[in-house]
Amino acid sequence: MFFDILTIFEDFFDSSLKNQNCGVISKAICSGILQVAVRNLRDYTHDRHRTTDDRPFGGGAGMVMKPEPLCNALDEIKLEAQRALAPEPLVVLLSPRGVTFNQKLACELANFEHICLICGRYEGVDERVRELYVDFELSIGDYVLSGGEAAALVVVDAVGRLCKGVLGCESSSKEESFSQEHLLLEHPHYTRPRHFRGLNVPEVLLSGDHARIQKWRREEALKLTAIKRPELLEQAQLTEEDMAFLGKIR
Ligand code: SAM
Fold this sequence. Notes:
Blueprint: E1 2-7, H1 14-18, H2 24-30, E2 35-40, E3 53-54, E4 64-65, H3 67-83, E5 90-100, H4 103-109, E6 114-118, H5 127-133, E7 136-139, H6 149-160, H7 171-174, E8 195-196, E9 199-200, H8 210-228, H9 240-249
Helix pairs in contact: 3-5, 8-9
The structure holds S-adenosylmethionine.
């Protein structure tokens, strides 16, 4: 899978994506399973000052990202894809007004071979970039960041880890919170030591009884979801046993 990131702050991505010691995503990039090209928008300007922003028409506070550098970069990316006989990239504008990112969307995005993420800054991006190039506007939540770079990292991480070969164990992403097969919050985890500051690991997890452990995990997931995110239960596929358990704890 290939991500292109368009930014005016390419250094933002150095430690998290280029340093092999920063977890599964950076490892997958170093080993070539994931490819990430961070493009500096200033390289797509033609003036002496390498200008990427300008004052807003109509007045008001802040600056707006100019359309030319972004569109030049997107033209180059599309041309490169054509020359390589590769599919057109999906062009995603990171924006607080976009569709809110979630695990379902991450799974859908993981089906694309090439995603291009546009990181806005200042007041945002000239609207004509969206009209001309953007397939999809994506928000990572109902708050305003100072730039799209942190949002791009979130997307690369959440989508990248769903790509084949990135996680050591493919089932990890299938069984965790919000996964399509699960749609519940995940059960709690414990590791050694068995006793820690007066708290013990639940006995069932030490029993070696796989069926009992599975039942406990399912019930803990149901309980956590009912307490913390009850709305998720409406879409989860619940068995009669699940319903009976929820009936008991409610
Ligand atoms: N003026 C814009 C508004 O009120 O909606 C906010 C612009 S914000 C300061 C600058 C850039 O950060 C945006 O263009 C976008 O790329 C990015 N950004 C901010 N919040 C975001 C969010 N919740 N999700 C994704 N990107 C975000």
